[in-house]
């Protein structure tokens, strides 16, 4: 099952309108990275999503949920922010953010500590769903 099908199955999902290919290209250019395919699929369909206290960064949205703004802000505040990563979720706990690299691998980043957590955005989506179910 692809990430779009997995997102479709989330109850009480909030999302904005999906974005265009040109918005994706512009965001990649601004950040100097290439988004992994799953992220591109996700933002084309959903823009940005929120469910059960989980908020994923995306495109076609202003403010703190915009992936470009969130990643730029983290880069400015954290000298250790990896150049090949972007923010997918801000945990809101002492600088802890979930980041994704160009290969689609997901990490927790807290200041200078980068910890691998899963192999794909689909895996991370399931982790977020499990976290929400256990609240």
Summarize model confidence as the mean pLDDT. Answer: 94
Number of helices: 5
Described by the principal axes of the CA atoms, the overall outline is globular
Given helix and strand content, the structural type is: alpha+beta
**What is the helical fraction, as a range of percent?**
25-40%
Overview of this protein structure:
The protein is α+β, with helices and mostly antiparallel strands and 135 residues long. It has five helices and seven strands. It has helices at 3-8, 21-31, 37-46, 67-77, 121-133; strands at 14-15, 49-51, 54-56, 85-90, 96-101, 106-110, 113-118. The strands form two sheets. The protein has a four-stranded antiparallel beta sheet. Strands 1-2-3 form a three-stranded antiparallel beta sheet, covered by helices on one side. The model has no long low-confidence stretch (mean pLDDT 94).
Characteristic terms for this protein:
single chain; globular; four-stranded antiparallel β-sheet; three-stranded antiparallel β-sheet; 38% helix; 135 residues; alpha+beta
In short:
38% of the residues lie in helices and 23% in strands.
Write the layout of secondary structure elements.
Layout: H1 3-8, E1 14-15, H2 21-31, H3 37-46, E2 49-51, E3 54-56, H4 67-77, E4 85-90, E5 96-101, E6 106-110, E7 113-118, H5 121-133
Antiparallel strand pairs: 1-2, 2-3, 4-5, 5-6, 6-7
């Amino acid at each position: 099952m692809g990430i779009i099908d997995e997102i479709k199955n989330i109850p009480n999902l909030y999302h904005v309108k999906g974005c265009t290919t040109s918005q994706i290209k512009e965001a990649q250019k601004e950040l100097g990275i290439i988004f992994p395919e799953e992220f591109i699929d996700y933002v084309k369909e959903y823009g940005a999503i929120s469910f059960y206290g989980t908020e994923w960064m995306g495109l076609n949205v202003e403010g703190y949920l915009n992936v470009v703004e969130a990643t730029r802000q983290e880069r400015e505040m954290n000298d250790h922010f990896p150049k090949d990563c972007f923010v997918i979720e801000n945990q809101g706990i002492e600088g802890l953010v979930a980041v994704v690299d160009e290969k689609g691998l997901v990490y927790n980043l807290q200041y200078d500590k980068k910890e691998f957590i899963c192999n794909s955005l689909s895996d991370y989506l399931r982790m977020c769903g499990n976290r929400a179910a256990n609240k």
